[in-house]
Amino acid sequence: MSQIATEDSSVDELDYSLTALDRCDSCGAQAYIRVTLNSGDLLFCAHHGNEFKDKLFPTALHWHDESARLLEDRTAQ
Questions:
Q1: Which residue range forms the structural domain that includes residue 60?
Q2: pTM of the complete model
């Protein structure tokens, strides 16, 4: 069963947040999405997370998406 967890969710299993050290497995940019599959975790930037969501979401155990932080950073300036 797939679940979506955003940074506003309170899911004990996903009690972590992505940092600037977490990098996209596709391009190396900062990761804002962590996908947990049976085979392990994948990290994606917002662009690649959106690109692969339709393919990966049906088999994902968890979909942790912090891409809303990108909009928060803009409004803080």
A1: 4-75
A2: 0.75
